[in-house]
Amino acid sequence: MNEYAILSIHGVLILFGVLLMTPMGSSIAAMFHSRYPSTTTRRGQILAGMMFVCLGGFTVSAQTLWMHNKLSEGASVCSGDTILNCDGLIGNAAYNTDPLLDQPWGLIGMVAFTLLMWFVITIAKEPMSSETPLFIKGGLGATIAGLPVIALLVSYEIKEGLICPFCTVTHITNVIALIGFFMLFKMYESDNWAPELKKSSRK
Questions:
Q1: At what angle do helices 42-72 and 105-125 cross, to 10 degrees?
Q2: Distances in Å between the alpha carbon of 35 and those of 17, 39, 50, 51?
Q3: What is d(CA 2, CA 77) in angstroms, rounded to the nearest whole number?
């Protein structure tokens, strides 16, 4: 299968999640209402959307790890004569691992999005828990911590004059997750988190 066809599969997951997080999410979430009643609320729609976003971030990170492993075996996964070239970046020994942990960036991404997914699922399961603000801030902190990493990887792309489409989708997904956690933070700080309850009952 063409690598960009595979990338589109990851993209569909992420895009569906983004749509759920937008104001039009109320109509899209209708398909989940019978099985997941929480999606009838704006909070539930955002959380559902973030689950798809984090899942897409995990799968595209897993794809880049697979590419890393194939390239280390001498194979070619998505080389080309255009600026869009995964081999030139993921296959470059100087750039394809985390300089601190010496682990492939794809593996780092998988761990990061697994952590974000855990935060989202935990919040969704117990939205009224006293630990909820801690998990929201944890998600915010983790996605903000990803911004310097994105800047480093983009600097590699600029240096080589290449763009890795799979890496770019991963970077965008981190930013989307950051926006999602910020939306949850703002919602929790308002009366929109649980309109049926007074905020005082959650403290």
A1: 160
A2: 18, 9, 18, 16
A3: 10
Give exposure, 144-166, as e/b (b: 16+ Cβ within 10 Å). eebeebbeebeebbeebebbbbb
Question: Distances from the Cα of 105 to the Cαs of 9, 37, 65, 86, in angstroms?
Answer: 20, 37, 7, 13
- Please report the sign of the dihedral spanned by the C-alpha atoms of residue 167, residue 169, residue 175, residue 180: negative
> By the 8 A CB rule, do 3 and 77 touch?
yes
Buried b (16+ CB within 10 A) or exposed e, 118-137: ebbebbbeebeeeebbebbe
Q: CA Rg, the chain, in Å?
A: 19
Give the sign of the dihedral formed by CA 107, CA 109, CA 115, CA 121: negative
- Chain segment 121-174, per-residue pLDDT in tens: 999 999 999 999 999 999 999 999 999 999 999 999 898 888 888 899 999 999
Q: Using an 8 Å Cβ cutoff, are 90 and 116 in contact?
A: no
- Extract the tokens encoding 134: 């801690």
| Coil, helix or strand at residue 20 | helix
The b-or-e profile of 93-106 (16+ CB within 10 A means b, else e) is eebbbeeeeeebbb
Q: pLDDT tens across 10-34, in order?
A: 999 999 999 999 988 788 888 888 8
Residues 171 and 140: beta-carbon distance below 8 Å: no
